[in-house]
Amino acid sequence: MPEIGIGLIGCGEIADLHAQALQGIAGARIVAAYDLQPDRSGAFADKFNVKSAVNVEDLLANPEVQAVYVMTRHDSHAAYVLKALEAGKHVFCEKPLALTEEDARKVYRAARGSKTYLMVGFNHRWGPAVQSVRAYAKAQNTLIRLVQVTFATAPFLENWGGLPIEGGGVFPCLGSHALDLACYLADDEPVRVTALGARLRLTGPYLDDTGAALIQTRSGALCSVTFHDHAPASYVNYATGMTSHLVRAEVFGDGWAAVVDDIQKARYFDSRGCREDLFPGDDPLTILGIAQEDAHFVNCLLAGQAPSPDFREGLRAFRVVKAALDSAREERTLPVEGVVE
Amino acid sequence: MEKQRVGLVGLAQGWYATLYSRHCAQRQDVRFVGICDLGESNDYVRACAETTADEFAQEIGTPLFHRFEDLMDTKPTALIVTNESGAHHSIAVPAIETGVHVFLGKPATITLSAAEQIAAASTLHPGVVVLPGEPARYEDGMIQAQSGVASGVIGKPLMTHIFVNHPAMTNHAWEMDPKRGGGPVIEFGCYVIDLAEWIVGSPIVSVAAMGANFLHPQIPTPDNVKMIAEHANGGFSSLDMCSSIHWTYPFLGLEVIGEKGSIRTDYHNYPTYIQTPEGCQVSEPRTSAMNLREIEHFMDCIQGKARPGITIQDYVSTMQVLEAVQEALASGRRVPVKRSEHA
Lengths: 341, 343
Prior knowledge:
The structure holds two protein chains of two kinds. By secondary structure, chain A is an alpha/beta fold. In chain A, 35% of the residues lie in helices and 26% in strands.
């Protein structure tokens, strides 16, 4: 059976989840891993029985590596993606694609001109309930009017994610998920955004830990999103008892509504009444959509097809986050720059 | 037992007018002294209330008047004011100045100026009960959320989401004219703003908003508004007012995430969840007769058995925020809420 050899750059918590997922995907084989911290790289290599690369060049020079996962701190995503594309590798880059417009444009141009594929990791798109709601919405074949996304996690921003250089604070860390998911569920391009940001728990040098935003899409749909890391220890998934991440998403079209509730439940309201679908299971890789997005990436590569979300959506997602950040600072609604081919 | 002499002014808010009046008229401690239709035609009243003023007066067993002054000649002690929302203050202010208790159908007013006029009259007549209608304050889930936050069990509220769904009012031209009825932004926006300030327990200091009209071309204002608001305590609220849903969908939704726990009510008639470090409390599913509770509360207040759970000053605060919302919709800017002495 054909295989895709995979190299991992960054061996933190998210890399561990992807590695677990990839181990369960037919046709995926993790070849090597690299981390700036050699001990972490070594421990990761031992755990997953792969080679520990001494540096990125070593990993990219490995002919068995056909695809690279970039799962480092946000400020280094673009540089690693560019190196991997230049080395002729397919790339999976965790969100956000970049922290600056300049870096995002560089990645966009490189990916557009590359013969290899780039996919951006927005795992919450792939959750079973989200996919079900999206499929239901598409099947209604009407305009989508309203979207609401609530995104809450346990406190974690008092770390590199909350710092200006490495992580960028709550907007790129959590807002990128929530804003992308709103646009994904609206199935439309964002054109305007207005946002609020605040530090409600953290203090300097950390950035905002709380965000809220409104988006208007090209077709006129209105989206609202909230994102923060204030979920207290008691704030758990009401259905499963797991700590919540995506808590709720509501989508309203002409004549119907669909709700993602506590990640694992979808509810549908229309002229026929209300019905509910449960997506039981306790595998976090499936609940969080990581297994599905990794399978999509690998299967696309095996089939020679472009995976999604691609570099265009990655640039768009970056620009929504950037516009939201600027809006919060300037206290006014701002346009979202489109992605023009 | 001395009976309260209750009168009804206006049938423009027909559902409220008939519901409140029918309920009051059944009470042993109420003598219904009259209904005033303010001279509106049968067609007008029927469009609003699905009856005529004459038929309704006969049903209640009370005289029908066409002029407010004639109803006031019957010496009412309390009035239910359900004329066009944009004219509530023209009834409420003289009634208060005459010492008559007033219940105002929601929305109590459609402008800040009108709310301030009523508040000013109320300040000068502190013995007169002025109760703005706000049915959601009498809904068990909202009450549990407010008391839960106020008790401190979830700590400081950091992020609140409130959703209100109510179809736009289109029975009569006045309801679709923002200058007479306020339009959906005021009509239902007052629900979300009041709930946010009441439940969070902290006034809104600034707001940004986006709106759109998806379903009602006959209404020249948005029928949907999404707002994000900053409270004085630093917390945020995400507030949704939706009046274009024409299929079955819950009326209210609420979640408050605090420093130590969270409160969530899964819409009207669903259980309320309160999660704290000690565990999760789940209430019984509920059916709250909100409108009957609020008119009962009005009766309790005028009989001295209770103090108003919502005041005209609260409503002035709501209107101050809604004025900021309208400015935010027009300007695309985050707008600070201007406060005045009456809030």
